[in-house]
Amino acid sequence: MLKYDQFKYLPTAKDLPDSDDTPVDNELQDLIPHRLRSILAMVWAERWDWFFGVDMGVYYHPNKPAIAPNGFLSLGVPRVIDEDLRLSYVVWEEKRIPILVIEVVSERVREEYSAKKQIYQELEFPYYVIYNLQGSGKDRLDVYRLMNGVYDLVPGNPVWLPEVGLAIGCERGTYQGMTREWVYWYDERGTILLTPDEIAVAAQQRRLEAKQLAQSEQQRRLQAEQLAQSEQQRRLEAEQLAQSEQQRRLQAEQRSAEAGLRAQRLAELLRSAGIDPDIEL
Known about the structure:
The protein has 281 residues and is α+β, with helices and mostly antiparallel strands. Helices cover 38% and strands 22% of the residues. It has a six-stranded mixed beta sheet with strand order 1-3-5-6-7-8, with helices on both faces. A hairpin with an 8-residue loop joins strand 6 (127-132) and strand 7 (141-147). The longest helix has 77 residues, at 196-272. The protein is rod-shaped, with a radius of gyration of 43 Å.
């Protein structure tokens, strides 16, 4: 009996096109998935069982064209397959479907909520994340989880992904000098996970704030020293004023005593001359 291995004759990543020459629609569709990948490269630096693709073709059927989400995460696959890296993500070679796909909606809503969502649902990708630039408030980031073959919208921001061990959400921040709303990974405590660049900027900011705090503390100590010196000068001036006042009183008492003595001597002279000093003229 002839044994037929269906996987043996399937095309490999080298056989399949790895680019359709279609550029991304805008800068954010490139920046958002790249920064998500750079965060994972740091927090999972010791792990080699994951792969995050950005605008890479995902082949799920040998007779169908690849899909190319803005970003996708696959777990349980080699992070690096060889020095040439991946040309595409071929499901029948990887033997794993991505656990999460993310789409950044362009200026006008296209197929993210319809055709693409249907494809990802049929392929049973556990999580589908849509970041809508035109959305408002909590609706800017939608996280869908596959439940019984159907995508259900998961409420909250951020949304915890137990299979990934991280949460995903969005809030305002600064990345590459641009302050706006970004998509972030979060740890189990809900703390934002930053990119290496953001950590460096934050560390620089902390050093600057520490330097400013030290300068403020030095200025405060200088002002305290100046205040202490002013207080000491005030006390010295008060002591000098008190001493001057005491000296003035002593001088006044001395003048009064001398005047009394002179009056007494005058009275004695008048009496010796037969004149009563007490008689009013």
